[in-house]
């Protein structure tokens, strides 16, 4: 596992989905409302972020989560090209100190009133920013045509309390990378889609078969990246909980995790994962190269590994759905998004630049640089690997067919992911008892919910 969702091309452990600790101190005042597209290709102006007018020359500052990388270099070139193409909006990407986690910088800037005009943030953090009033709804900025062009997962991830607050230029996806030559030799069937996913019991038998065939750790789950508080733990393995019929928090009210995260379905799913580790079927977290080196034949990971895996095994890599733990296969979704902050910046000027980044050729430009999934249907058409029959087509199908699921859309998400991530680490690496460990996680989440009165949308 090389990458985290923010840099869906490289460095899960190195770069922030250090999203880990957006503190409760950021959550100061509530935000709510509704509204959106009128369904006729026009915008329903339920907010005043954009009024269709830019007065004079506007200056826009931008924060971006990545340090030096293909992703960051691409954004800088996009800024340069945008500034050259017109003179009404001047955009500047602010260079941030690399020694501090990105979200730590955002938290500090929010407290001091020094946020940029356009902020880049990890998708599920949107809800805390929207609830606290740090970002503004952008329904008034987004045309009906663009809204319809966005992948449904992008719209879903960017919506809070009925309003659109954020838009990403790329999305993400999970799956199992397999070596077809090895599986066929062992007599193992290869799923052809979500409806054909291996069951968890079937998958357990497959792992045992592969170990007998001489592969010491048949499955690589990226446990080398399963540090306490790391987002990979939640993004990568909440889908197993969901697939079993469990959840991280009450999905209807978001007022408690009790009976959900520590319910029998969640306990069962994580017990299955823990048993794989105990049985020695999973690479134990010593290396991130188990699949590359041929020690593992199956890798539970995301789209960002496709280039490396196909380089090591050209013509012998296929992507299949995650196992079905009882209620159908489920995958993760969501990546970094853009939001307009609640400062004095001209929303139309900020949107002018963001609309440029959302042009099909610019989305393709970024997704080529970071290996991510293009955010619009029109941009997907520029990427043959995602076309019908393409090698990575499964990721698009999952994002459009309802297999992909967003992480909990609640301002409590920072507390939810911190608690789940730490519990996952204890269960998988330390061998801690599953039910008792999840009970502790529930206690931490519910304590945060109580401290914020359940994060009411009306601010009461």
- Total beta strand runs: 14
What form results from the Cα inertia axes?
A: globular
SSE arrangement, N to C: EHEHEHHHEEEEHHEHHEHEEEHHEHHEHH
Main sheet summary: 4 strands, mixed
Question: Approximately how much beta-strand content do the residues carry?
Answer: 5-15%
List low-pLDDT spans: 1-44
Rounded to an integer, what's the Rg over CA atoms? 22 Å
Architecture overview:
With 460 residues, the protein is an alpha/beta fold. It is 36% helix and 10% strand. The protein is built from 16 helices and 14 strands. The chain has helices at 70-85, 102-112, 126-131, 144-149, 152-157, 180-185, 200-212, 231-243, 264-278, 306-312, 347-357, 360-370, 377-380, 393-400, 413-428, 434-451, and strands spanning 58-63, 89-93, 118-122, 159-160, 163-164, 170-171, 174-178, 219-220, 298-302, 318-320, 331-332, 336-340, 373-374, 404-405. The strands form five sheets. It has a four-stranded mixed beta sheet with strand order 2-1-3-12. It is globular and about 70 Å long.
Give the tags.
460 residues, alpha/beta, 4-stranded mixed sheet, 14 strands, 36% helix, disordered N terminus
Write a compact overview of the structure shown:
This protein is α/β, with parallel strands linked by helices. It has 16 helices and 14 strands. The N terminus is likely disordered.
List the helices and strands and how they pair.
Blueprint: E1 58-63, H1 70-85, E2 89-93, H2 102-112, E3 118-122, H3 126-131, H4 144-149, H5 152-157, E4 159-160, E5 163-164, E6 170-171, E7 174-178, H6 180-185, H7 200-212, E8 219-220, H8 231-243, H9 264-278, E9 298-302, H10 306-312, E10 318-320, E11 331-332, E12 336-340, H11 347-357, H12 360-370, E13 373-374, H13 377-380, H14 393-400, E14 404-405, H15 413-428, H16 434-451
């Amino acid at each position: 596992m090389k990458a985290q969702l923010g840099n869906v091309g490289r460095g899960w452990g190195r770069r922030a989905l250090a999203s880990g600790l957006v503190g409760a101190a950021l959550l100061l005042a509530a935000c709510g409302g509704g509204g959106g597209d009128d369904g006729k290709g026009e915008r329903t102006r339920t907010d005043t972020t954009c009024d269709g007018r830019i007065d004079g020359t506007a200056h826009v500052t931008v924060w971006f989560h990545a340090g030096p990388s293909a992703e960051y270099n691409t954004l800088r070139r996009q800024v340069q090209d945008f500034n050259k193409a017109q003179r009404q909006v001047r955009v500047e990407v602010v260079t941030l100190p690399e020694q501090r986690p990105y979200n730590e910088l955002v938290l500090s800037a929010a407290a001091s009133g020094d946020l940029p005009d356009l902020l880049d943030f990890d998708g599920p953090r949107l809800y805390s920013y929207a609830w606290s009033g740090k970002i503004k709804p952008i329904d008034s900025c987004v045309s009906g045509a663009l809204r319809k062009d966005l992948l449904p997962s992008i719209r879903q991830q960017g919506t809070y309390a009925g309003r659109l607050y954020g838009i990403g230029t790329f999305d993400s996806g999970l799956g199992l990378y397999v070596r077809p030559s090895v599986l066929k030799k062992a007599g193992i069937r290869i799923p052809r889609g979500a409806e054909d996913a291996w069951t968890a019991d079937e998958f357990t038998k497959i792992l045992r078969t592969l170990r007998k065939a001489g592969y010491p750790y048949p499955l690589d789950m990226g446990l080398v990246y399963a540090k306490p508080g790391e987002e990979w733990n939640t993004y990568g393995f909440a889908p197993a909980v969901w697939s079993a019929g469990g959840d991280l928090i009450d999905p209807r009210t978001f007022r408690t995790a009790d009976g959900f995260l520590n319910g029998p379905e969640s306990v069962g799913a994580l017990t299955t994962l823990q048993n794989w580790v105990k049985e020695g079927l999973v690479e134990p977290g010593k290396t991130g190269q188990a699949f590359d080196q041929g020690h593992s034949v199956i890798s539970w990971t995301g789209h960002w590994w496709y280039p490396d895996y196909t380089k090591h095994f050209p013509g012998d890599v296929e992507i299949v759905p995650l196992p079905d733990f009882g209620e159908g296969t489920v995958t993760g979704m969501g990546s970094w998004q853009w939001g307009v902050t609640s400062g004095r910046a001209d929303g139309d000027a900020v949107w002018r630049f963001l609309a440029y980044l959302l042009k099909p050729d610019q989305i393709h430009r970024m997704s080529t640089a970071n290996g991510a999934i293009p955010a619009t249907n029109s941009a997907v058409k520029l990427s043959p690997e995602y076309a019908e029959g393409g090698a990575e087509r499964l990721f698009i199908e999952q994002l459009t067919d309802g297999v992909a699921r967003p992480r909990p859309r609640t301002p409590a998400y920072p507390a939810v992911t911190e608690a789940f991530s730490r519990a996952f680490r204890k269960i998988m690496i330390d061998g801690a008892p599953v039910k008792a460990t999840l009970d502790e996680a529930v206690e931490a989440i519910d304590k945060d919910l109580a401290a914020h009165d359940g994060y009411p949308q009306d601010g009461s």
